[in-house]
Amino acid sequence: MGYSFVVFADGCANLPKEMLDGISLIPNDYLLDDVPQVYLGDIDHFDGHSFYEDLRNGKVAKTSLLNTHLFETHFRPVLEQGQDIIYISMSSGISGTYNAARIAAEELLEEFPERFIHIVDSHGCGFGNGILAERAASLARKGVDVKEAAKILDEDVPHMCQYFTVDDLNFLRRTGRVSGVASTIGTVLSIKPILYGDSTGHIVSCAKVRGRSQAIKALVSKFQEKVMDVPDQHICISHGDCLEDANTLVKMIREIAPNTPITLAQHEPFSGAHVGPGMLGLFFYGKER
Predict the structure, then answer these.
(1) Which of 289, 282, 288 minimizes the C-alpha distance to 256?
(2) How far apart are CA 25 and CA 14, in angstroms?
(3) Bridging pattern class, strands 117-121 and 85-89
(4) Are strands 85-89 and 6-10 parallel, antiparallel or unpaired?
(5) Is 31 within 8 Å of 61 (Cβ atoms)?
(6) What is the DSSP pairing of strand 117-121 with strand 6-10?
(7) Which residue of 10, 82, 96, 217 is 20 to 30 Å from 66, comparing CA positions?
(8) CB 208 within 8 A of CB 191
């Protein structure tokens, strides 16, 4: 049985091979010390250790939005084949990519008025839109009508919880997430922020704790507080080259939800450039963000 529509995501979705079935990926370009890099989106073949080690050693990664032309290039062949599209975008609160995709969709629908394109603003990044892409592919596989699927996915967005902590506040400071003073104090006092994607898709702090172990416990506490008992729950954990801490988080989550699938992966480079090495994130369906 074929898919009822085509699902697109991009490298920011952080998807390993086990979650890629039925999802077409758009590559993300970035610069590492001004040298162009192309990330095709396959997290299984991403050398996270080398990338985050480069950041630790002072190399600078710069990203830019996926432009309208890129979306038109990927979407048009699908429309020409008479298929509809749902694209799961990274948050409009942190990137102009959503708006670029929306403009591309509007222009293409003038050319293909009989087709349907829906851009889902995930209000997240990493697994925050990757889990939604997996959900979209599942709906397409089951033959759900594209318009009904679009409605379901938009209703899922407020329940897509994404909590994370970082090891080096300076990366957040460089992207304007914390002030220079707060960054310095946090580094000296080992204060670790607990951050999340809010209802508008912006990254905000919801707590500060002292030390890495307390930060991991705080992520677990958020999971206990927010998690929903839903049939398609899929817990995902990503990390910026801190596997030991990630495994600790996996173990603690398994004690709470022993029968729920958990996927662990390196955190992709596109948003990883902004959160830096030591990022540890937890993604799941919750009662609210």
Answers:
(1) 282
(2) 10
(3) parallel
(4) parallel
(5) yes
(6) unpaired
(7) 82
(8) yes
Q: Which of 284, 273, 283 is nearest to 39 (CA)?
A: 273
Structure tokens at 28: 């993300």
Task: Please compute Rg for the chain using Cα positions.
Answer: 19
**How does pLDDT run along the chain (289 residues), one tens digit per residue?**
589 999 999 999 999 999 999 999 999 989 999 999 989 888 999 999 999 999 999 999 999 889 999 999 999 999 999 999 999 999 998 889 999 999 999 999 999 999 999 999 999 999 999 999 999 999 999 999 999 999 999 999 999 999 999 988 777 777 664 545 455 556 666 888 898 888 888 888 888 899 999 999 999 999 999 999 888 899 999 999 999 999 999 999 999 999 999 999 999 999 999 899 999 999 999 999 8
Is 109 exposed, middle or buried, given 0-12, 13-18 or 19+ CB atoms closer than 10 A? middle
Tokens 């708006």 label which residue? 99
Task: Please report, to the nearest 10 degrees, the dihedral formed by the alpha carbons of residues 168, 173, 176, 181 taken in order.
Answer: 130
Helix spans in the chain (H) = 48-56, 68-80, 97-111, 127-141, 146-156, 169-174, 180-189, 212-226, 243-256, 269-275
Residue 250 to residue 34: CA distance in whole angstroms: 35
CB atoms within 10 A of CB 165: 25
The CA distance from 6 to 174, in Å, is: 37
Q: Are 138 and 231 in contact (CB under 8 A)?
A: no
Distance CA(125)–CA(64), nearest Å, equals 14
Residues 6+ apart with CB under 8 A from 137: 3, 7, 21, 22, 23
DSSP string, 14-38: ---GGG-TTEEEEPEEEEETTEEEE
